Amino acid sequence: MRTRVAVIGGGQNCEHDVSLASAASVAAALDPATYDVVPLTIGRDGTWRDRGLRPIGLSGAAHVLRGCDVVFPVVHGPRGEDGALAALCELAGLPYVGSGVRAGALAMDKWATKLVAAAVGIATAPGTLVTAATAAHLRWTHPVVVKPVAAGSSQGVGLAAAPEQLRPALEAALALDDRVLVEDVVTGREIDVAVLRCADGTLVAAPALEIVTDGLFDYDAKYGGHADFRVPARLDEVDAKALEDAALTAYDALACSGVARVDFFLTEDGPVLNEVNTVPGMTEHSQVPRMFAAAGLSYPELLDELVRGAHR
Questions:
Q1: Which CATH number fits domain 3-96: 3.90.1150.10, 3.40.1190.10, 3.40.50.20, 2.60.40.3760?
Q2: Residue 153 falls in the annotated catalytic set
């Protein structure tokens, strides 16, 4: 008998389109001989829709989910990746793919992630937490990166390299979140490491991936084809080990499950953690599947491992 898997995409946030692409790719790649895929979509307005995109509401979605064996949430960003869908599954007693409520909430909050990282000895960029009430008092003294605390896909991220750029960058970030992180610019190579908790409980780190861009790795660079992804990244043994150890430590400290992408800057002093994504992009050409493909694990095999390792 095939396993019924509900694949949830979309979402009521600025990463809606990215989530739709990830969910469609996951649904298409799950082996039809093993899995019966049931697609569900959350609209920009929060409306749940069935495979025919007919509105069915939360109660209708709950009825569909109760008839499935496993839930595979692929909703990036707030009201999805932040633990919201994991909480729904937990309350309904539904097995689901990926990190639990606590890990999703902690990793989605970049300020909380920095605090956890500091507690386990992982370096992060010096930064300040800013709100709408305190933004007016912030003074520019050196180049900084401004980003929403809880948004993904590099949405709302801006570089303030000069004093006159700080205010517009803060306004753009505050338009997406009521808390903003202002961090020192870190000089280093941008390196991602994917970590997977396999169905048997073992942790595996895929070969690292380097992102090469002409400037800030923002939304346009990420999805507009302006970035060069190099996997495996060219690293010496010392740097490769330091990155893998830091990625595994961050994954464990945040209590992640399933797959997570841990993003670093590799500096002269070693890895500096940028962020942790508990629901990373999951099209076949996204960073995480590329990294595991470099390790010999195909995209359908990665998805199969995730479904078999679902919370039960």
A1: 3.40.50.20
A2: yes
Q: pLDDT digit string (tens) for 80-111? A: 999 999 999 999 999 999 999 999 999 999 99
**Distance between CA atoms of residues 207 and 68, nearest Å:** 34
Annotated binding residues, written as ranges, equal 263, 275, 277
Q: Is 229 exposed, middle or buried (0-12, 13-18, 19+ CB in 10 A)?
A: middle
Q: For the full predicted model, state whether its pTM sits above 0.90.
A: yes
Active site residue 286: yes
Q: Which of 25, 153, 154, 257 is catalytic?
A: 153
Residue spans of the domains in the chain: they are 3-96, 105-124+186-308, 127-184
CATH of 127-184, one of 2.30.110.10, 3.40.630.30, 3.30.1490.20, 3.40.50.150: 3.30.1490.20
Query: Of 154, 257, 286, 305, which is the active-site residue?
Result: 286
Query: What pLDDT does residue 155 have?
Result: 80
Which one, of 79, 74, 112, lies nearest residue 280 by Cα?
74
Q: How large is the average pLDDT for residues 111-126?
A: 97
Residues that constitute the known binding site for Mg(2+):
263, 275, 277
Catalytic residue (choose from 15, 81, 190, 305): 15
15 is catalytic: yes
Q: Can you say whether residue 219 is alpha, beta or left, with left for phi > 0 and alpha for psi between -120 and 50 degrees?
A: alpha
For residues 136-163, average pLDDT: 90
Query: 10 Å Cβ neighbour count for 168?
Result: 12
Bridge partner residues of 294 (DSSP) = none
